[in-house]
Amino acid sequence: MKKIISLVLVIALLAVTFVGCTSEKPAETPVETPAETPAETPAEEPAKAGSIAKVGLGQNISIEKSSDKADDKNATAQADVTMAAVGFDEEGKVVSVTVDVTQAKIAFDENMVVTSDREAEVLSKKDLKEDYGMTKASAIGKEWYEQMAAFEEWMIGKTVEEITGLPVKEANPSHQNVPDVPELTSTVTITVESYLAAVAEAWDNAVDAPGAEKVGLGVQAGIESSKDAADDKPATAQADTYMSATAVDADGKVVTTIVDVAQVKITYDEEGKVTNKDAELKTKHELKEDYGMVPASEIGKEWYEQMNAFQEWMAGKTKDEITGLPVKEANPSHQHVPDVPELTSTVTITVEGYQGVVAEAIDNAR
Question: pTM to 2 decimals?
Answer without folding.
Answer: 0.86
